[in-house]
Every structure is written in structure tokens, then in C-alpha cells.
Amino acid sequence: MSKYIRILIELNNLIFLTFYNFLLIAGFGIFNLKVFAKHQSVFSSEENYDNVSSHLYPLYIIFLVGNLSILFNFFLPIFISRYIILLFLSYLFFKGFKTYIQKSKNIYFLSANIITPLIISVATYGAKFHYDAGAYHLNFQNWIHQYKIQIGLSNLNPYYSYGSLQEYINSNFLYLNVNILLFFTELIFFVSFLNFLYFNLAFSKKLFFKYSSLFTLIFLFLDNFGFMGGGNGSIQIQMPGKPDTSVGILMYLVTVFILQDLKTNSTSSSKFFNILLLGLFAYQLKSNSVFLVILIGFYIFKFKNKINIFNKSNLFLYFLFLFFTIKNFLISGCLLYPFYLSCVKSVSWINIQNIYDSIQITVNDFGTYEVGSNFIEWLKFFISFAYNKQIYSNLLLSVIVLLVLKIIFFEKVGRRNDLLYLHLTYLTISFIIFFLTVPAFRNAYGLIISISLLFTINEIKPKKYAEKFDNKILFMIFFLITALLLPRNFMYEEAINKKFMYTDLIIEQPEYENYFNNLVKPIENNKCWINEDCILLVSNKKYIYTKELKFNYVVNFSY
Questions:
Q1: How far apart are the first and last CA of the chain?
Q2: pLDDT along the chain (559 residues), means of 10
Q3: 556: helix, coil or strand?
Q4: Helix/strand/coil (H, E, C) string of 37-92?
Q5: Which pLDDT score is estimated for 38?
Q6: Mind spelling out the 3-state secondary structure of 280-341?
Q7: Burial per residue of 105-116, b for 16 or more beta-carbon CB atoms within 10 angstroms, e otherwise
Q8: What is the Cα 344 distance to its own chain's centre?
Q9: How far apart are CA 237 and CA 312, in angstroms?
Q10: Peptide bond into 338 cis (omega under 30)
Q11: Are the beta carbons of 51 and 196 closer than 8 angstroms?
């Protein structure tokens, strides 16, 4: 018997299934606390299954873990604070367990929270850390895991200036000898996102929620077909270590919630809190989500007489934003890296040249358009750069397919051209900024997938001859096919080869060479992996770095 139990424990799929449902149950627990109970019903309870919001509960818990880790890290290393956080999550788990059991009596709810995680967990097979994970993500996580916040830490590696919330989330899972947990926190977003789409499609009575979810699933499905094998720029399972898909999902969710409220001309303090929380979450993961300010700003203006933007719940989020910004400043001297103008050149711990050079390297690596240069020549270069021709060709094909499907099978039942123009304006401004900054298509996941919403802002419903396709069984089949296509072929092959047994991520151990004062740098590339004595230099000017942990300060000397 113990042999079979051990085999079950050693399955990646079941480990991830347990991890996801633990977060989901803890999510129920947090909304059972009196202080958060008023936000539990973000939507009206007209749906007959469960509020859509519950499928996002795991994301709220991850958000909470990351921000608690930031706050604690001002005073404690994360290897200490993580036990406090685990204790709190365990309390939430027991608070939410009864509610979870009650909800699980609904077969759709129960099956979605078993089947979808099992499908997505296949991605853990054949996965390897993303290049940037070895270059700076893991080592930054190691620093905050071992020490409280280090002023001027970016002097050791300018890319520590990003300081994404992802680092503070994942740092809790370092040195547990289960590296795959660092990937689980990213895959959680896919499960919540897919379940959100499915329950909207199958059960929502709100036409925009229902058919925007359908068109989004079709867009995800089309990603698997087309020019050079497919790839239309929609969200995809990346190699572990990058937050791009997580940010894209959050941007999509914020956009959908805002458009729904604007369509119905209704809001509430809970709905606005939800939008603000998810928007802040996206920003803390990666600053390219700042585009959402356009939509959130319009939302505030539209409902200025209906919401109090300074109520206690929202002030809590502003408090988290403030400490996130202070953290950025202490680590790098910049309020928002890589926005160069946000850097305070007068502070003693900033290495402005190194930060400037790192920004230029990032910009130059992705074919950014420079204002005033020949647009046609740039366009030729950009299309030929990396996978751009494949991605944007398939994006165009997908848009055409969605348009044809809408014309053939659907009819309009309501016009909201004002919201259509708003969304078009948001996408246009965002894409212009995207092409002027770092136009790597992974930085536009949230924008690209939001293109699918253009087809459903003017409300639609199936034409009479197409109504027979509007049923839960077909929706479920299509959903499962789309979900099954998200893990790539090599992931399924690796899972079968490994017989679905436990497979972990490998943290490499590179060779280093001495640089100065017991500091080292990698011999072959710029990937330090996990080594607090390892540095990355990007400037032509030589810099000397020493660490004075006794004074909680990383001192920078230059000559």
C-alpha cells in the first residue's frame, strides 16, 4: 500500500493538483474573514453554478503571498517570513475548507478544479528554466531569500532593478528541493484563466461575458494552426521564470471586467476593488501592464459619482503600491525601472550608467522603432526579426477567421460603438507605445488576446440556424480540446517517457572566474544562476563592487 501511495505522491500532476486546490481553498478562507467578506460577491449571484470570482481565488492568494513577502522583506529575509506566511495560509485553508466542500457538490465546479489542473500540469514535463531565470531571476530570489532588503542591490546586476512581484512569490519556494514549485506559480494563472472562460461560456447569462469567452477560446485554439505551424501571439506556456503570460492574463481580465461594467453602466466598491487589485497585480509583475491606466482612468472618470476611490479597501492597495515603489527605489535608485526618467541620480547607491546601458541593451535587442527613422526600412527589419513574421501573419489570419465566424453564425443584438472606439483607442495607444519601447511579442500577450474582445463589445447572439451549437456539451468538448492543446507536443512526449513520474527543474552550476574582491562572473555567458557573489556588468566602464551586508547596504565604487 505504501508503495502505491509513494507513486501517487511522486506524480507531477497530483502535486500540482494539490497545490492549486490548496490555494483555491485558502481563497475561500480569505473571503470568509470579516474584513474581506464584503468583496466575496464581485458579481451578481444570478449564475446558477458559482460566482465567476471564485475561479480567480488562487490568483488573489498568490498576490497576497507576494505582497506580504515584500512587506516582511523590509525587516526579515524570506527564509524566515515564509513560515509566518505559511502559517497564515494554513489558517485560511481551514477557514475555507467547509465552503470548498459545499461548492464541490456542484459537479461542474468539482470537475473543473480537477481536470483543468491535471491538463495544465503536463507542461511541467520537458520544462527548462528560461534564459533570464539563470541570468537574474533566480539569483535575485536568492538574495531576498537570504537577506532583508539590500539597498543598491542592482549594482551587482542592473536587471535586479525589475524586482518583479514574481521574485517575492517564488522566493518562498527556494531551497525546498522541489524546484518545480517555481513553475507551479505561473501555471496557476492558466488554470484560473481557463476555468474563468469555461464557466462564463457555459453558464453566464451576461452575453458579453459568454461570447467574449467563446471568441477568446477560439483565438487560443487558432494559435495551434496557420503559417509556419501557427502561433498568433496569444498567451502560451513559457519556460519557467518569466511572468509575461501571467501579466497577459491579468491584463485581459481587467479589460473584460471594465468593459462589462461600462456596458451595463453599473459598478460597486467591490467591483472596482477587484479591478484595482488585478491591475496592481499585473503592474507589480511587469511594468509593461501600465497600459491599463488608460482603461482604469476612464473607468474612474465614468463612475466618479458612484465609487469612492479612497475607501479603506482601496487605500490598502495604494499602501501596497507605495511599498512596492519604495522597494524599487531602495534596490535601484529608480521608482520604475526601466523608465529612465524615474531614476534619482543624486542618491549614493545608484549606478546610473550601468542602468542606462542595461536599458539600451534591452531596447536594442528587440528591434525598437526610433522616432524619425525610416519607417518602411524599420518595418522590413522588424518583420524579418525573430518570429515576428510568423506571429503577425497568424494574428492577421486569426482576426479574419473570427470575423468570418461572427458574420456567419452571429447577429448583433445591441450596439455600443462608444465602447468599441474606447477599446480600439486603448489598443492603438498601447501598441504604439509597445513598438516604441520593447516590441517583443511576449510583452504584448495581454494586448493581443484582448483583440478578440472587439468582436463581442457590440453584443451578439447566435443566429437561429446556429442555436443548436449553443449547448454546454459542445462548449465542454471545445474547451477541453483547447486546454489540451496548450501544453506543447514535446511536453506530452516527455510526460509519457517519464510515465508521468516526478520530474524537477534543474538549477545549473556554471563555472565562474574571479573578478574582484571575492566576487565572480560566469565564464561562458551572463547566467549567474544562484550565487550571491556573482555579478553582471553591462557598461563599457569598469566598476568595482563590494558588499557590506553588516550595514544592509551594497556599496558601489567606480573609477
A1: 67
A2: 49 93 95 68 41 84 98 97 97 95 92 96 94 94 96 91 95 91 96 96 91 97 92 92 95 96 92 95 95 96 94 95 97 87 89 80 77 87 85 96 96 91 96 90 94 95 91 93 96 92 91 86 89 76 40 38
A3: strand
A4: HCCCCCCCCCCCCCCHHHHHHHHHHHHHHHHHHHHHHCCCCHHHHHHHHHHHHHHH
A5: 60
A6: HHHHHHCHHHHHHHHHHHHHHHHCCCCCCCCCHHHHHHHHHHHHHHHHHHHHHCECCCCCHH
A7: eeebbeebbebb
A8: 28
A9: 37
A10: yes
A11: no
The grid cell for 17 is 493538483
Residues forming beta bridges with residue 522, ordered by sequence position? 512
The pLDDT assigned to 285 comes to 97
CA 298/CA 295 separation, integer angstroms: 5
Residues 129, 130, 131, 136, CA torsion sign: negative
Within the chain, what is the greatest distance between any pair of CA atoms? 76
Residues 6+ apart with CB under 8 A from 378: 367, 369, 370
- For residue 336, give the C-alpha cell: 520604475
To the nearest 10 degrees (0 to 180), the angle between helices 375-384 and 388-409 is 90
Single-letter amino acid code for the residue at 113: N
> Which residue, 481, 482, 498, 501, is CA-closest to 490?
498
Count, residues in the chain: 559
CA distance 255 to 247: 12
Q: Residue 315, exposed/middle/buried by CB under 10 A (0-12, 13-18, 19+)?
A: exposed
User: What was the pLDDT predicted at 97?
Assistant: 95
Q: Are 341 and 334 in contact (CB under 8 A)?
A: no
* % helix, strand, coil for the chain, step of 5: 65, 5, 30
Is the C-alpha dihedral spanning 164, 277, 71, 326 positive or negative? positive
Cα–Cα distances in angstroms (integers) from residue 332 to residues 288, 349, 360, 431, 550, in the given order: 18, 8, 16, 28, 19
Cβ–Cβ contacts within 10 Å for residue 542, how many? 9
CA 343 to chain centre: 25
CA-wise closest residue to 156 among 147, 209, 4, 290: 147
Query: What is the per-residue pLDDT for 45?
Result: 40
Cell numbers given for 321: 503600491
* Integer Cα distance of 212 and 201 in angstroms: 8
φ, ψ of residue 515 to 5 degrees: the values are: -115, -60
Q: Collapsing DSSP states into helix, strand and coil, what is residue 429?
A: helix
Distance CA 451, CA 431 (A): 11
d(CA 245, CA 205) in angstroms, rounded, equals 28
Which residues are paired to 556 by β-bridges?
545
**Which residue from 284, 331, 323 is spatially nearest to 149, judged by alpha carbons?**
331
Question: Nearest 5 degrees, angle CA 280-CA 282-CA 288?
Answer: 110
The pTM (predicted TM-score) of the whole model is 0.93
